[in-house]
TrEMBL record:
<feature type="region of interest" description="Disordered">
    <location>
        <begin position="265"/>
        <end position="348"/>
    </location>
</feature>
<dbReference type="InterPro" id="IPR005123">
    <property type="entry name" value="Oxoglu/Fe-dep_dioxygenase_dom"/>
</dbReference>
<dbReference type="Pfam" id="PF13532">
    <property type="entry name" value="2OG-FeII_Oxy_2"/>
</dbReference>
<dbReference type="GO" id="GO:0005737">
    <property type="term" value="C:cytoplasm"/>
</dbReference>
<keyword id="KW-0560">Oxidoreductase</keyword>
<comment type="similarity">
    <text>Belongs to the alkB family.</text>
</comment>
<dbReference type="GO" id="GO:0008198">
    <property type="term" value="F:ferrous iron binding"/>
</dbReference>
<feature type="binding site">
    <location>
        <position position="443"/>
    </location>
    <ligand>
        <name>Fe cation</name>
    </ligand>
</feature>
<dbReference type="InterPro" id="IPR037151">
    <property type="entry name" value="AlkB-like_sf"/>
</dbReference>
<keyword id="KW-0408">Iron</keyword>
<dbReference type="GO" id="GO:0035515">
    <property type="term" value="F:oxidative RNA demethylase activity"/>
</dbReference>
<feature type="region of interest" description="Disordered">
    <location>
        <begin position="198"/>
        <end position="252"/>
    </location>
</feature>
<dbReference type="InterPro" id="IPR027450">
    <property type="entry name" value="AlkB-like"/>
</dbReference>
<feature type="compositionally biased region" description="Low complexity">
    <location>
        <begin position="214"/>
        <end position="233"/>
    </location>
</feature>
<keyword id="KW-0479">Metal-binding</keyword>
<dbReference type="GO" id="GO:0035516">
    <property type="term" value="F:broad specificity oxidative DNA demethylase activity"/>
</dbReference>
<feature type="binding site">
    <location>
        <position position="441"/>
    </location>
    <ligand>
        <name>Fe cation</name>
    </ligand>
</feature>
């Protein structure tokens, strides 16, 4: 793990940090004198200067900018770009075709956060089943209530005038070590360590969210816990971090820190926690026919009928969901996963599903990283990397290998130097809302750093910073759109990178979601009009 070389407070920012600050979203209160007093009249977004940002979609059509080389690669529909100052970085614009984007976006909401995959919520609440479906329950409407939604939500549907009501987690966040039995499913919490100025007290914190401190989820006594969920605590939690709500991310192998306010921001956190043994979370049903408008409520109702909690695999071109791809065969939750009904009710003490969905930051597929031992825990329960993601990464790495054969030297891949040696088995799924950022970091704890990372962007546009081996090196700012892929290979594996900004539609110059395939009014599309998902696929074994 490389040193965190951000300068201490009071000194100049590193070049990387300066770039983060340049592109970060800042909102300022506009003040005006009213009645003899200064009053806040509006929240103003600081203008964003995109003139220094590389947009290789425009270069696809026109001239290639200095320091960037365009290649035609067999097997790639469009051009592929490499960078003089970033050896090992390969940019493949629009490499994920629209139908596959659509499948991945749906899977990212329906499947990937399902237990036994872990998410940032595990540290506070334990495994949660059917988050997306529960968040959609209020939209399920009277039909859903009639069909049995009220069986789960109690009186909420009725109180909601037939429109359903928000579902709440049955258990609440715990803010301290469990005070005696009974322990609960949601009690993994490590007391916050104070963030010290410029120090490495929390060097695993990468994400910040504007105003996150004001957006804390409700804290209530952990009561009314589902009997079946008691006694389960996630394993392997290193206890080093600060799994406060919001910006924690797995940071597998990451070194970095970002704090919107610099020192003393107190928002550092890291939520790494191992989970139990491998299982899966879906029954492998496919639903990629564009009929997503009602699919979430249908999935919910299906789930209510069969008790699987909506944890259905919906990903995979061949009709198989992620779980099916993982060879699970039918049941839709892992051994340690509570059912949908155990998780959600109309009157639980916890936050609403919508709140939790907004705060979903990451999910991990494949082996979990154990921060206490600083290694991947291969034995702990996890959701295997779906075959479709492994296939996507393998195909793209093979395309990149073609550059190698053309003498461009962007790899090696593995000791053999052949793409065939590349066997991805893990991914981090990052969920970004407007205002989120991922601070500069290295991904450097995988066993074999000669294995590339394949990083696919989905949903809203973002700015990506690609730096060098130290933060002192000024990064290149690039615009990423839904469907774009970056491959970090060779020397680029040891370089700082991060995401300082998700482009809100105004900044992006769009009304949002232009790049989403087959735009429709489905809830998934609505989510991705402003949100972004990144899936970074890795080989960790
Ligand atoms: O969101 C992105 O584009 C970058 C993600 C990343 O760097 C990571 O997950 O390590
Ligand atoms: Fe990364």
């Amino acid at each position: 793990m490389a040193d965190d070389d951000d300068k201490p407070c009071g000194q100049a920012w590193t070049a990387f940090r300066a770039a983060e600050k340049k592109y970060a979203l800042y909102r300022e209160q506009k003040l005006r004198m009213k009645g003899g007093r200064l009053r806040a009249v509006a929240l103003v977004t600081r203008p964003l200067d995109l003139s220094g940002v590389l947009d290789l979609h425009t270069a696809c059509a026109g001239d290639t900018p200095p320091g960037v080389t365009r290649h035609a690669v067999p097997g790639c529909a469009g051009p592929v770009f490499t960078f003089e100052h970033h050896p090992g970085l390969v940019f493949l614009p629009a490499a994920v075709p629209p139908p596959q984007q659509r499948q991945l976006l749906r899977a990212a909401l329906h499947d990937y956060p399902q237990p036994p995959a872990r998410t940032n919520h595990n540290a506070h609440f334990g495994p949660i089943t059917g988050l997306w479906e529960a968040a959609q329950a209020a939209r399920a409407g009277a039909g859903a209530a009639e069909a049995g939604l009220e069986a789960v939500v109690g009186g909420a549907a009725a109180r909601g005038g037939g429109g359903g009501g928000p579902l709440r987690l049955r258990w609440a966040r715990r803010d301290g070590p469990a005070a005696g039995p009974p322990p609960c499913v949601g009690c993994e919490h490590v007391p916050a360590a104070p963030r010290t100025c410029g120090a490495a007290a929390d060097q695993h914190q990468h994400r910040h969210r504007e105003q996150e401190e004001q957006q804390q989820l409700p804290l209530q006594p952990a009561e009314q816990l589902p009997a079946t969920a008691t006694g389960r605590r996630s394993q392997g939690h290193g206890g080093h971090g600060q799994p406060a709500l919001g910006p924690g991310r797995p940071g597998l192998g990451c070194t970095g820190a970002i704090g919107g306010a610099g020192c003393g921001s107190g928002s550092g956190r890291c939520s790494h926690d191992g989970s139990g043994r491998s299982s899966h979370g879906g029954s492998g049903r496919s639903s990629h026919d564009g009929s997503c408008g009602s699919s979430s409520s249908e999935a919910l109702l299906e789930a209510l009928k069969d008790g699987t909690g909506g944890a259905r695999g919906m990903e995979g071109p061949g009709g198989g969901g992620a779980a099916e791809e993982a060879g699970s065969g039918g049941r839709s939750r892992g051994a340690s996963a509570p059912s949908f009904a155990e998780c959600w009710s109309a009157e639980g003490p916890g936050p609403t599903a919508e709140q939790l969905l907004r705060k979903l930051r990451w999910a991990t597929l494949g082996p979990q990283f154990d921060w206490s031992r600083r290694q991947y825990d291969m034995a702990a329960e996890h959701r295997p990397l779906p075959a479709s993601l492994a296939q996507l990464a393998t195909q793209l790495v093979a395309a990149v290998e073609a550059l190698q054969h053309a003498g461009l030297g962007v790899l090696p891949i593995g000791a053999s130097g052949r793409a065939a040696a590349y066997q991805p088995d893990a991914a981090i799924v990052n969920y970004y809302q407007p205002g989120d950022a991922l601070g500069g970091h290295l991904d450097d704890v995988e066993r074999d750093l000669s294995q590339p990372i394949v990083s696919a962007s989905l949903g809203a546009d973002a700015l990506f910073l690609m730096g060098g081996p130290s933060r002192a090196q000024a990064p290149t700012a690039m615009r990423l759109r839904g469907g774009d892929v970056l491959v970090l290979a060779g020397p680029a594996r040891r370089c700082y990178h991060g995401v300082p900004r998700i482009l809100e539609p105004e900044a992006a110059g769009t009304d949002g979601g232009e790049d989403l395939p087959q735009r429709s009014s489905g809830p998934e599309e609505a989510y991705f009009r402003t949100a972004r998902v990144n899936i970074s696929i890795r080989a960790v074994r």
